[in-house]
Amino acid sequence: MTFCYRILLSLLLLFLPLSLSAQSAAPQVSPATAQPAPWWKHAVLYEVYPRSYGDTNGDGIGDLNGITEHLDYLQQLGIGAIWIAPFYPSPQVDFGYDISNYQDVDPQFGTLADLDRLTRETKRRGMRLVVDMVLNHTSDQHPWFRGSAGSRNSAKANWYIWNDGIPATAPGVTPYQKRYEHDGKVPPNNWISMFGGSAWEWSPFRKQFYYHRFYKQQPDLNWRNPEVEAAMFAAMRFWLDRGVSGFRLDAISMIYEDERLRSAKELGGVDALGDPRLDKLYLDNLPEVHGLVRRIRALVDSYPDHPVLLGETSTANVADLDHWYGGASQDELHLPINFMIGFVGTNIFSADHFRTTIGEAETGTHGGQPLIFFDNHDIDRSIDRFGDGVHNQQIARLIATVLFTVRGTPLTYYGAPLGMTTQTPTRKEDVRDPWGIAGWPKQKGRDGERTPMQWTPGPQAGFSTNSNTWLPVAPNYRTLNVQTESADPGSMLNWYRTLIALRRSTPALLDGSMTMLNPDDHNVFAYRRTAPDGKGSVLVAVNISAAPHTVQLGTGFAAGAQKARTLLASDPALQNVTSLDNLVLPPFSSWVGEAQ
Ligand code: NOJ
Description:
- The protein folds into three domains: 43-138 and 226-502, Glycosidases (TIM Barrel, Alpha-Beta Barrel), CATH 3.20.20.80; 143-211, Oligo-1,6-glucosidase, Domain 2 (Oligo-1,6-glucosidase, domain 2); 512-595, Golgi alpha-mannosidase II (Immunoglobulin-like, Sandwich).
- 26% of the residues lie in helices and 16% in strands.
- It has 17 helices and 22 strands.
- The protein has helices at 4-15, 64-68, 71-77, 112-124, 143-150, 175-178, 226-241, 288-301, 318-325, 339-342, 351-363, 382-385, 392-405, 434-439, 482-486, 492-505, 507-511; strands at residues 45-48, 81-84, 128-134, 162-163, 166-167, 185-186, 200-203, 208-211, 246-250, 266-270, 276-278, 308-311, 335-336, 371-373, 409-413, 513-517, 524-530, 537-543, 549-551, 564-569, 583-585, 590-595.
- The strands form six sheets. An eight-stranded parallel β-sheet has the order 13-12-9-3-2-1-15-14.
- Helix 1 (4-15) packs across helix 16 and helix 13 packs parallel to helix 16.
- It is globular and about 80 Å long.
- The chain starts with a helix and ends with a strand.
- Residues 1-33 have low confidence and may be disordered.
- 1-deoxynojirimycin binds next to loops.
- 1-deoxynojirimycin binds at residues 94, 97, 134, 214, 250-251, 312, 377-378.
């Protein structure tokens, strides 16, 4: 044990009962309201991709019982709530994001009884379950769509977005629209699907086009029809009544499209699939969506114990993010997911980027609670995205340090706490994500970040007894796995455990305000978290560069308060820091400490 965090880890693990949970931890009281903070302000959130977590029936695909089986691991990690990607009945074209029944479990994942057991067992360990709710679209195999597509006179005729199209000879029709000609008609506009091609698909029965923002097997619902809202609200009640603690609202910004179906402005150039790049004015963030979100908020607020609403809210700036909270009224999403901090490319990873985006999230959302994340099932793992190939381990620790010590609710992704890496397929024939098949080789899809969870150094990493897992287990599983890393005090997993334990036991990190330090430093991102009662603060400094840097963190402290103590550090050189002056941070190192 050379690193100081190892010492801290031993102390924390000794003195913090592992059963310490979001529920059993003393509730923090916000001084302004004297109300206990809702659980989601303090919980660490963890995304499970159910196909890839644990396979208990040997079919090579994860299932709900495979999550239940591993709840102790999550509890020991210090997780407060698990968000599970969709497990509902589905043809699995988009691996569950194409739902054919909103009130059941896909047999491939288990049964409703398994879900109830998972909910119960999660709660028994002081954690909670948040489920994905895909409101924008259904599967084309959902009975609603089958009815709707079957006839213009069906009871569900107006549940999706149907259009006659326009004559292929009409003025202004583009060659692109003409590619999708049927019966002399072309799609009514130039809108394209996220996953390639026109967003309009011809239905031979209705002799009309329907709109699909994603795959053609994912038709968009018509949310201007109140029956759709009533049906989806019933589905949400179904899960709340079963005891889930909230929803992650998929593609929430895409619920409504321009009613006049105006063509989008072309921005020039094409995407990886060769489709024109379009302005999203008529496709995303239509103002009506906020009324809907307020109604969803009222629905969840009518349930006890603060069910949470997370939203897939990819925004260009913090002003747009603020709308998702409901602005000054704060009556929309509790936790709109902030994509601007961590869902970004390699070239953006810098101290300046963090200071700006995290600072804006702090100040620009009318006091809303930031939801910070770096990884999910739609993007290469951050260890590879931000890794420079030399310092990847240090960089991953740095990302975790920021994730768990800035103000906000942290969301991590299965495998990140192990340092699991992206396994991008190298041959088209191995790709499972249809997006990657259509886009190969420019767009290789999302398989790389969805490979099976690595539990042990044994066969299939302990994920499955079946050697034919739905995606191959990453070759590095022999060293990167829960069992091996648990036994190594210097592992990534223990870095995560220590950070999360520190966060949960430190009021300044849970609820404290945040002040940026060294605002002009382009290499080191540093900040102070100060406990709500003013007593106690924590200092964090991460060096986002490949060279050592020296920082002065004493600014703002009373003279004589320049002495420091390390709480946690990624590097042996930072083990015995005694002063806030001239702190020398090795490349990509993380230091968490306090002034004395
Ligand atoms: C966002 C989800 O995260 C992604 O995986 C999915 O393909 C689309 N929404 C469509 O539901």
